[in-house]
Each structure stands twice: as structure tokens, then as C-alpha cells.
Specification:
alpha/beta, six-stranded parallel beta sheet, 11 strands, binds guanine
């Protein structure tokens, strides 16, 4: 069994990005600039956004964090999105999700200029991704592809089961694993909360990508000997023995599943750091105006 070290791979990629930014700056070009909007004080969102700001520093990017209390109106937020759309110094920006219920996430996403949508959530980027055109690809699926690539994991003709059908992970992941490319060329099945044969599908899978948000959902008896298991879950499960009061828990029961796998990602230290570094890669592309002029 090989443990996929997302932390090490992401550190390596951040170094590669920082070197490229240093070259850009030496040529007199501007540093890529990522802005992030954070609404409210959700613990997970606070942690993710802080990690994104820190990663920007490590990559040599400029970053701007814009905070609102959870009672911000939809109009105020949309005004800020439009302001960032028009700001020539900002290459790309994100609005951290989830948003409070009184704000339409879809409306916010669709207001972001797709040319600055480094999260890859805008319908134009989602559509372009699904037909294989250059675009910003959602960070988590993109980070998973990078791990498959860096560990030389075979995907062509393999049976890949994606657990979960979210717009951010499950759907784009399935589209990317079936694309005519490497990594890709897999036979993809998407299972979700209404699937009747989820366990049987998993048992036949060469690659399982678990993105349900249900701690310890994937058990040893659901995994074929030699399978590749990618765990996207990051649920905060209460744990009184820890200073933080919680334990970040994946969708896979790691201890019993790992011995059966050829490759597996741990939680934390697997997919999580790759998600952040994929956002950095998108920001670099935005800074270089490589995808959209
Ligand atoms: N919430 C959970 N994951 C993400 C992400 O990748 N981007 C944003 N903006 N919000 C998230």
C-alpha cells in the first residue's frame, strides 16, 4: 500500500509556483493577485480561507481578504463582486461557500466574471470543463487529478466510482475521470444518497473517490483488493481529547480500508492541501491571462 502524500506534493507545487512568480517579478510583471470574500464565522470556512491566504504568501502572490458579518445583504455582496470584477489589479477571486441562507449562492457565482472565477464554479467554466475546453477547473477535482498524475496511477479503462454528486466535487470529478485524456479515460459510475447498489458498485471499483461528507462511510468490505481510494471527506467530528475539540474525519474508515489498497489518501494531508494548491495554480493562470485574455 502506498500512502498518497498530498502535503508533500502540494509543498513541491507551491515551490514550483513561487519560482515562476519570482521569474515574472524579475521580468517586471505584476504578482498574481487573489482576493477572497469570507462571510460570517463558520469554523471550517475560517480555516480554509486562512490556509488560502497563507498559500498565497508562500507562492509570492498578493492576497486580499474581504470579510463580512453573516447579516450582510445579498445586494452588498453582489456590489463587492462587481467591484472585484472591475478591479484590474485583482486577477482572480473567490467567495467562500457556504453562504448564509438569505443569500443565493448561485446568483453570487453567476455574478462573478468567469474570467476571474478561479474556483471554476461559474456555469461558463463548468460547461467548458465538461466539453474539454480550456477553463478554470474546480480545485478539489483538479487536485485529485494532479495526485493521480504524480503517483503515475493508471486510469485508462479502469472502473471509477465517484461517491457524491455535488457541483463542487462529485459532478466535475466524474466528468474529468471520463474525459479523453490522462488522468481520465475511465468508466465512471456516480453513486449518491439515492443509489440502491452503492456497495456493489464500490466492490467492483478499481478507483473509489469518496466525496459524500459522511465520516467513515467506506468500510473494508466495500473495497476491492488493490483498489485506489481517494478520500475527499473533511467532517469535523467532536473529539474531547483534542485541543480544537474536533477531529477532521474522512469518508473512508482508513485503518481497515488502507491495508487492502494499492494507493490511499489520508485525512488530513491527502486531498485537502491539493485543493488549496489547485486554487493557487488557477490564480497563477489568471495572473498570466493564460486561459482568458
Ligand atoms: N467551500 C468548500 N470548498 C470550497 C471551495 O473550493 N471554494 C469556495 N469558494 N468555497 C468552498
Amino acid at each position: 500500500m502506498t500512502l498518497i502524500d498530498g502535503k508533500a506534493v502540494s509543498a513541491q507545487i507551491k515551490k514550483e509556483i513561487a519560482a515562476e512568480v519570482a521569474d515574472m517579478v524579475a521580468r517586471g510583471e505584476k504578482r498574481p493577485h487573489l482576493a477572497a470574500i469570507l462571510v460570517g464565522h463558520d469554523g471550517g470556512s475560517e480555516t480554509y480561507v486562512a490556509a488560502k491566504v497563507k498559500a498565497c504568501e508562500e507562492c509570492g502572490f498578493t492576497s486580499t481578504l474581504i470579510r463580512y458579518e453573516s447579516d450582510v445583504t445579498e445586494e452588498e455582496l453582489l456590489n463587492k463582486v462587481n467591484e472585484l470584477n472591475a478591479d484590474p489589479d485583482v486577477d482572480g477571486f473567490i467567495v467562500q461557500l457556504p453562504l448564509p441562507k438569505h443569500i443565493s449562492e448561485q446568483k453570487v457565482i453567476e455574478t462573478i466574471d468567469y474570467r476571474k472565477d478561479v474556483d471554476g464554479f461559474h456555469p461558463i467554466n463548468v460547461g467548458r470543463m465538461s466539453i474539454g475546453l480550456p477553463c478554470y477547473v474546480s480545485a478539489t477535482p483538479s487536485g485529485i487529478l494532479e495526485l493521480l498524475k504524480r503517483y503515475h496511477i493508471e486510469t485508462q479503462g479502469k472502473k471509477c466510482v465517484v461517491l457524491g454528486r455535488s457541483n463542487i466535487v462529485g459532478k466535475p470529478m466524474a466528468a474529468l475521470m471520463m474525459q479523453k485524456a490522462y488522468p481520465g479515460d475511465a468508466t465512471v459510475t456516480v453513486c449518491h444518497s439515492r443509489s440502491r447498489n452503492l456497495v456493489e458498485e464500490c466492490r467492483e471499483a478499481d478507483i473509489i473517490i469518496a466525496a459524500l461528507g459522511q465520516p467513515n462511510f467506506v468500510k473494508a468490505d466495500m473495497v476491492k483488493e488493490g483498489a485506489v481510494v481517494i478520500d475527499v471527506g473533511t467532517t469535523r467530528v467532536p473529539d474531547a481529547t483534542r485541543k480544537s475539540g474536533f477531529k477532521l474525519t474522512g469518508d473512508v474508515k482508513f485503518d481497515e480500508v488502507a491495508p487492502k489498497c494499492s494507493f490511499i489518501t489520508p485525512v488530513p494531508g491527502g486531498v485537502g492541501p491539493m485543493t488549496i494548491v489547485s486554487l493557487m495554480k488557477n490564480t497563477l493562470l489568471a495572473g498570466k491571462k493564460e486561459i482568458y485574455k
